[in-house]
């Protein structure tokens, strides 16, 4: 039985370079992640020792150009995200927070000095970054953030709280978004600055092999040179979130595919009533449904990647992939678990772990509801958000 579904010859749509990138990342995951991920997840350990290896693999800020960044295509980045998440959502999340959020914020909105200082070291994995937008009382509506930066002479004084901030406790630099007297601005805060504190959130039922933190900012002073000069208003952080959402549209396919592959292998080996359960009609229906959804999700993601590489990708199109592909991935992981029967609750098998992780992925970078309303506004031309924030900012 074929493990990876390719009912429509998806590989025929990829270039040799794209296939080579996918092959390299898949081999890395097979060798360095799969043998250990169940243990890391069980013990709630993020494998920080893999960071230099991920840098060597060329996946940190891989879609960014210049400043020591790999400068790979959007499709290559998507394929890499898919393979990383086949190992675990936490691994793809690390690459996303580092590259699509923290590095992207500096690349898009930073000064030349900021780019030259931070980006090469972050691409090499020598510096880890985090992205502080979400707050305890401000998730889907970041316009209601209460973190405030007050200008005092040549410095800014930051006070506030952030929540669910990936990597914050191991980061050396934090991109912090704050209200000011002139609107939302972004700041690069070195995490050893007095008044900055990051505390990992525990215990968690999802994303256990990953790090999410609470951040407290108490009279944190940074110089004017730490402000991202091109970041003005909520459009700035949302431009970074769109980079992360794009990667999610690809990444979740990896979790779905790994769940499907696990179920397919198991179905071929598990004997009941003197035959493998893969020979039962209901099992075949489950496997076919999973394979079809994976094929569709791959085509959606590839379409977005091609549009992104030509500069034609629109925000609402990213919402299509984030919403549809994540929904499909969760359904596939859950269905794959049913093929495994009672054994599916064992950490020996991946689908239940993927399903738990995908509940977090479904929520971050825009919930189902937010992406539904983004698409609803695009389809109808009517803004359904209760906030007065324009939909184009939300997208």
Q: What's the Cα radius of gyration? A: 21 Å
Beta-strand segment tally:
9
How many helices? 12
Under CATH, the topology of the largest domain is which? Butyryl-CoA Dehydrogenase, subunit A, domain 3
Q: In the CATH hierarchy, what is the superfamily of the largest domain?
A: Butyryl-CoA Dehydrogenase, subunit A, domain 3
Largest sheet: 4 strands, antiparallel
Beta-strand proportion: 5-15%
Low-confidence spans = 388-395
Roughly how much helix do the residues carry, as a percent range? Answer: 40-55%
List the main descriptive attributes of the protein structure presented here.
about 400 residues; alpha+beta; Butyryl-CoA Dehydrogenase, subunit A, domain 3; about 50% helix; 4-stranded antiparallel β-sheet; 3-stranded mixed β-sheet; Butyryl-CoA Dehydrogenase, subunit A, domain 2; Butyryl-Coa Dehydrogenase, subunit A, domain 1; 12 helices; globular
Structure in words:
There is one protein chain. Helix content is 50%, strand content 15%. The protein contains twelve helices and nine strands. By secondary structure, the chain is an alpha+beta fold. Strand 2 (148-152) and strand 3 (155-166) form a beta hairpin. It has three domains: 10-123, Butyryl-Coa Dehydrogenase, subunit A, domain 1 (Orthogonal Bundle); 129-226, Butyryl-CoA Dehydrogenase, subunit A, domain 2 (Beta Barrel), CATH 2.40.110; 235-394, Butyryl-CoA Dehydrogenase, subunit A, domain 3, CATH 1.20.140.10.
Helices and strands in order, then pairings?
Elements: H1 16-33, H2 37-43, H3 51-57, H4 74-87, H5 89-109, H6 112-123, E1 129-132, E2 148-152, E3 155-166, E4 173-180, E5 183-190, E6 196-200, E7 212-223, H7 235-269, E8 271-272, E9 275-276, H8 281-309, H9 315-339, H10 351-363, H11 368-380, H12 391-394
Parallel strand pairs: 1-4
Antiparallel strand pairs: 2-3, 3-7, 4-5, 6-7, 8-9
Helix pairs in contact: 1-4, 4-5, 4-7, 5-6, 5-7, 7-8, 7-9, 7-10, 8-9, 9-10, 9-11
